[in-house]
Amino acid sequence: MSAAQTVAALYRDEIARARAMRPEDKLLEGPRLFDRACRVIADGIRHQHPDLDDAAVQRLVRDRVALAEALQRQ
User: Fold this and answer.
1) Where are the domains of the chain?
2) Quick check: pTM over 0.85?
3) Which 3 state secondary structure label does DSSP give 57?
4) Is the Cβ–Cβ distance between 62 and 74 less than 8 Å?
């Protein structure tokens, strides 16, 4: 199985799990997914800028989240 096929299969599994969740569980899942997304963003920033300290990485995470929110409002 190729990497692309593996990613596609994992995505399908994640969608199936989400569809099977009760509405109240979906509501509770939101903050966990946001935290996970912020960790992924921070990891990407650290990869791009290994010289940054944690405070600088967190500032860039906040900046990128704010940019994403601004783009969604457009």
Assistant:
1) 23-73
2) no
3) helix
4) no
CB 37 within 8 A of CB 45: no
Kindly give the confidence (pLDDT) of every residue in the chain, 74 residues in length, as a single tens digit, with 9 standing for 90 and above: 898 899 899 999 989 998 999 999 989 988 988 999 999 999 999 999 999 999 999 999 999 999 999 999 99
34-58 in b/e form (b: 16+ CB < 10 A) is eeeeeeebbeebeeeeeeeeeeebe
List, in sequence order, every beta strand (DSSP E) within the chain: none
Report yes or no: 51 and 59 within 8 Å, Cβ to Cβ: no
The two three-digit tokens of residue 64, written as one number: 């990128």
Q: Which two structure tokens, joined as six digits, stand for 1?
A: 């199985």
